[in-house]
Design brief:
single chain, 420 residues, alpha/beta, TIM Barrel, 2 domains, eight-stranded parallel β-sheet, three-stranded antiparallel β-sheet, globular, disordered N terminus
């Protein structure tokens, strides 16, 4: 609209100059410039700020999950959601493919190990949602990066836990259940070769069978640091420590480091397997900040980044306090990673029982842009506008202000370079 107005003004000015004196023509130019300036200043202040600072490429992502969300359970709803995301100038989706102890796509690997090829939820039966997302998403120009949300975690009452109890790890007192909110979880032992092979087989199956752009893990690709006292892991530790048992304190620095390094070794192996299968499949990780990720989940993403075994980092900074949010953008390991790979920020846009106003979302996005990060991804789809105290139209207008024009995904494998 602004471009049309300027073109009209220029055209009208030429016509006026032909017919009037130089003095009156100059007066008209001054008037039209005043009109244009008034129109610009009449825009909302945040819209002006956002439009002035849009980067050339930017991750604009959203996680699609089957937890507290219906987006995946009906074909037309899923298609319409992807189309609407494209209309709002998003460019990336992270669909969950491994949740609640099941795959969300038909899996021969899962059928063999778990006894079910796909999550039993009725809305998923007779469908392949990953194929649908890839087909529709690519038609809309969206980058599709499947997300293994549960990693080594599983529900305590899942078929996987019941069928493979020897695969589970435990605390020093032998207990296995770890609470996640109200849910009882157990954890597969990431140090057992059979467990490692199962997770790797799932990943490679996805990469071979679907035209995806990448694959994503998070801290669940690690292990809660209170665990690791199962018989297998204790024997492995003793073997490498001249018969000495692991420390009783789960936060003992050497014990934490030993387990974290084992997980790093597995991550290296998975990275190599991914690249051997599909060289241009991007390896993405979406963890918590390093201190929490390492201390509580043994997921040393800082080392993974230094080793070159991750190619994209989406850091989950789900903070209510803006000052805390900003401080975590400034950590040295975050700044260091930005020099090598695209580093984006995961922003909470709401939960089932947690409302986040659009103004707060916009403020956090702007703080991310001010520091030249590669972009943002929102957790999660349903709370973008469906599950909110604000009206859907109001939320979507807010997103349009954030993303007024399309832009490309910042892909390291397609020539991304760090900001100067």
């Amino acid at each position: 609209m602004m471009k049309r107005l300027v073109k009209w003004c220029v055209g009208f000015d030429c016509w006026w100059n032909i017919r009037q004196s130089r003095k009156s023509g100059l007066f008209f130019v001054m008037v039209t410039l005043s009109v244009v300036t008034t129109l610009i200043l009449s825009l909302p202040l945040n819209a002006q700020t956002i439009s002035q600072r849009l980067p050339a490429s930017e991750l604009r992502g959203v996680w699609l999950t089957n937890i507290d969300s219906d987006v995946l359970f009906e074909r037309d709803r899923l298609k319409g959601s992807l189309q609407r995301l494209d209309e709002l100038n998003f460019n990336t989706v992270y669909p969950a493919v491994w949740n609640w102890g099941y795959t969300l796509y038909p899996s021969k690997v899962a059928a063999k190990v778990i006894g079910r090829a796909i999550d039993p939820t009725p809305g998923l039966q007779g469908r392949d949602i990953l194929k649908e997302i890839v087909n529709v998403g690519h038609q809309q120009g969206l980058t599709v990066i499947p997300w293994l949300e549960f990693g080594f975690m599983a529900p305590a009452d899942s078929l996987l836990a019941k069928n493979r109890p020897q695969w589970l790890t435990s605390r020093s007192d032998g207990t296995r259940i770890v609470k996640e909110g109200i849910h009882n979880r157990v954890w597969l032992n990431p140090f057992r070769p059979e467990v490692q092979q199962f997770i790797q087989d799932l990943i490679i199956e996805i990469i071979r069978n679907y035209d995806i752009d990448g694959i994503q893990f998070d801290d669940h690709f690690g292990l809660p640091s209170i665990l690791g006292y199962d018989t297998y892991t204790v024997a492995l530790y003793k073997k490498e420590h001249r018969g000495k048992a692991p420390p009783k304190n789960p936060q003992d620095p050497e014990w934490v480091s030993w387990r974290a390094n084992k997980i790093t070794d597995f991550t290296k192996r998975v990275f190599k397997a991914i690249k051997a299968t599909k060289k241009d499949c991007l390896v993405s990780v979406a963890p918590n900040p390093q201190r929490f990720s390492y201390d509580f989940f043994l997921a040393d993403w800082q080392k993974w980044e230094r080793l070159g075994i991750i190619e994209d980092l989406v850091l989950q900074i789900y903070r209510d306090d803006l000052n805390v949010f900003i401080s975590e953008l400034e950590y040295p390991e975050v700044k260091a990673a930005k020099k090598h790979i695209p580093v984006s920020i995961g922003i909470m846009v709401g939960l089932k029982n947690k409302f986040v106003p659009m103004q707060k979302i916009q403020t956090q996005v702007q703080k991310v842009r001010d520091r030249n990060f590669a972009g943002v991804s929102f957790f999660f789809y349903e709370t973008l506008w469906n599950m909110s105290k604000e009206k859907p139209q109001q939320r979507q207008i807010g997103l349009q202000e954030l993303f007024p024009t399309p832009t490309t995904y910042p892909n390291l494998l397609a020539g991304w370079k760090p900001s100067s």
